[in-house]
Design a protein that fits this description.
Length: 283
Amino acid sequence: MPELPEVETIARGLNQRIAGDVIESVWLGEKPEPLKSPAAEIASVLEHRRILQVRRVGKHIVFDLQRSRRNMSRRAAALDGQWIVHLGMTGRLLIASPEIAMAKHTHAVLKLASGREVRFVDPRRFGRLAVVRIESKIATGFAAPGDEPLQSQVGPFMALFRGRKTPIKSALLNQKLLSGVGNIYADESLFRAGIRPRRRAASLTRAELQRLHIALKAVLREAIKLGGSSVNDYVDAEGQEGFFQLRHRVYGREGKPCLVCGTAIKRVIIAGRSSHYCSRCQK
């Protein structure tokens, strides 16, 4: 499943290419699983809307929309709807020319005034498409349930884990605490902070939580810079793979020597999720 860096990369790429364009029409496939909102509602909110911006919220991609009016600048435009996309395990958002053959498992196509198309492709159909109507000028629309990791301050970050008896790895994956962190970046951050994934969150010292706060931000920013990690099906909005998988220090390296001390990387299951760590570097 794409995590924060992958979703951020896709959202930035889409924003650069289609912000300001207008959605002229919407086609939705027959499969019901991807549609979290009714098909008619999705079409109603999207059609004839200008795309003000595309951004990431947690693990979701949010298209901020405004009713298309001539001679209205984007700066003066008022938000009146949103398209919310969750990519699930295998979902992709791609920009394509109409003459390019539609890929199998395409579930939505947005035809743009520029002549291009935004296509949502998802072979396993775990992704979700929803819309939000913004009825008031003061409404903010879709929001993630947890804190934004890249904007978190150390004090509130440490408070998230106070008194929690769950393993720190599970706490990092809890989207109600931190929105966007997934398996890859939890493992990599815990390694850089020198903390074992099974440690109870409440047992971490102030110094350890400070190290984790720094490590998490550093890992996420580095991964975004490199376009995310392409370990399965992930590609960005232009169909390009990321490169952060070449920098993984523990994730997916079970049995291989630690890049710091040479100890074999271990893999354990915590709350049904694989966790990778070095038994010597992480305490």
